[in-house]
Amino acid sequence: MIEDLDLLEQSELSLLETLDHVLTRGLVIAGEITISVADVDLIFVGLNVVLTSVETAREIIGARGRKEEGE
Amino acid sequence: MRVYAYCLSDEIEEGEFEVISGVAGATARLIETEGIVSVVSNFPENSIAVTRENVLAHERVVRNIFRKASLLPFRFGTVIADARLLDFISSQKSTLSDQLERVRGSVEMSVKVVLPDEVNASEALQTKSGEEEDRTVSGTEYLKRKRREILVDEEIRERAGETARWLTEKLQGAASDSVVTALPSGSTVLAISFLVRRERADEYRKLLNRARAERPGLHFLTSGPWPPYSFSNINS
Lengths: 71, 236
Known about the structure:
With 71 residues, chain A is mainly α.
């Protein structure tokens, strides 16, 4: 699936690309993303793409938390 | 009942649906309303852990359906009461149908372009030698450095924008749509996804290879075909 390998191992790239698509894109129903960031697999940490993904997740959780506080 | 939601489709037939296991080992099943089918599995917990196993289970279910049907994938972590999911579909029916029409018969092809970071490197060097010369930084010097940082950031952003326009133009013969999913801020990676009809995937690859040859200084990371993750946002 991955066609360019000049930066990382293929398996790492493949996992990162999957994370980037599955965690940061896709249809969102407002307030219904409920992931637990505390349980983020350590293998995911340390790479830019993944950090971006986790940041996006945190923003959503933050927005949800604020929404619940306001209710 | 709380469920984990994988994707929506208007092309899945109950009879053709293969039994497949999803997150937490629960079997994926279908719920339908107004001609739109949701693929879900039972999920009693309140939140889902971001583990390799769970992320891959999500992608496995979506990809399995995607082999036979056009769909809109949900983002990882959609845990929802089934009644609320059905309400969402009813209330967004026309938008969702439009989105399904837009991605019908198409796949997502993704490109990440790593921009050369010589600007970053020279900037880092300047800052470092500056710090060695005088340990106490004056207010003016601090402002100068901040200003330099902003200029470098602007330059990277400009270059990324130009690269995005160039690549989009090169691929427009094969792609029906495109979206820039990441412009650099602090890093030098530009991400673009293209919506490509399945039968035009080869043409897309040919055009992409031609474009890559034009700019040998850029690093490309290409992936796909993907379910249309970047073309499923109903707000876009």
